[in-house]
Design goal:
Length: about 300
């Protein structure tokens, strides 16, 4: 028996596919170039024409690659808006490819835009990587045919002009968005993001515990030590494999391929996981040193 696992992508989604390919390739190439430049920052040897280097303008002004990304996003975005009148799939594919390149350059320095300072190599620079992964996930779901506004594409909305029916659809949409807000306030960005495409995930995320550092925990858990303790323990268990994978990848990129030991993982977990501070004016606080032990 022959199994066919081939995935046939509709012709109309090809611009999304090329956007995703250009986005991922640009991100990895950019990160490789930046790491190369950083590793040779103190090298006094004259650079050859093909060796990557920082882009500078007069007066020693360093031009971040986010600037190039913004320009490409603007140009390709205007091109796609223009093509929306009578453009075809091939033209949209070309514009989407350049949009993907520009978007990758922008999101690679998303942390710089968010913090208004160069935190590319700092802990806060992790925000850029999170933003890139989020963009890849959303694009992948769109390519597979998932639609975050699918509740407006159901038969009752298209075929029935009844006020009651349409009110029910709108109420469902409002409930979905409300659940998404709750999930995001609980610090579950990925659950909220994918839940907009797969609605049951939003219900699960809204019912389950908040992450300990999230706004929801700040408002609801700071006066409930047991619940905060459960949130801290749960976060540590769930984050452990993620941290292990991240540290392993960092070692590989640094040329030291090895699996991180427990001490290194626990140290990273101690830095990342913390209880949310109590709201201003609230005397309640959680002693983190007594709420969670580092599980092996």
């Amino acid at each position: 028996m022959k199994l066919d696992f081939s995935l046939e992508i509709p012709h109309g989604r090809m611009p999304l596919v090329w956007f995703l390919v250009a986005f991922i390739l640009t991100f990895f190439v950019t990160r490789t170039i930046v790491r190369y430049i950083r590793s040779h920052a103190n090298d006094d040897k004259p650079r050859k024409w093909w060796q990557p280097r920082n882009i500078s303008a007069g007066g020693g002004l360093h031009i971040h690659h986010v600037v190039i990304g913004v320009v490409l996003v603007m140009i390709s975005g205007v091109a796609m808006v223009t093509l929306s009148v009578d453009g075809g799939v091939p033209e949209f594919t070309v514009a989407a490819t350049f949009f993907g390149i520009g978007a990758a350059l922008v999101l690679d320095e998303f942390a710089l835009i968010l913090h208004l300072q160069d935190v590319y190599w700092a802990e806060d620079g992790r925000t850029s990587v999170d933003a890139v992964f989020a963009a890849v996930a959303v694009t992948g779901l769109l390519i597979l045919g998932f639609n975050p506004l699918s509740f407006f594409d159901i038969d009752i909305w298209r075929e029935s002009h009844s006020l009651t029916a349409r009110a029910a659809v709108i109420a469902l949409a409002v409930l979905t968005l409300a659940l998404a807000v709750v999930v995001l306030l609980k610090g579950k960005v990925w659950t909220g993001l994918i839940g907009m495409f797969i609605t049951p995930l939003l219900l699960i995320g809204a019912i389950r515990l908040s992450r300990p550092h999230a706004p929801w925990a700040r408002w609801r858990y700071t006066d409930k030590p047991r619940k905060m303790h459960r949130a801290l323990v749960r976060e540590r268990v769930l984050r452990r494999p993620v941290v292990q994978a991240k540290l392993w990848l960092q070692h590989v990129i640094a040329g030291e391929p090895r699996f991180p030991d427990d001490a290194e993982v626990n140290q990273q977990l101690d830095r990342e996981i913390h209880a949310a501070p109590a709201p201003a004016g609230d005397g309640a606080a959680v002693d983190e040193t007594k709420t969670v032990q580092a599980p092996a």
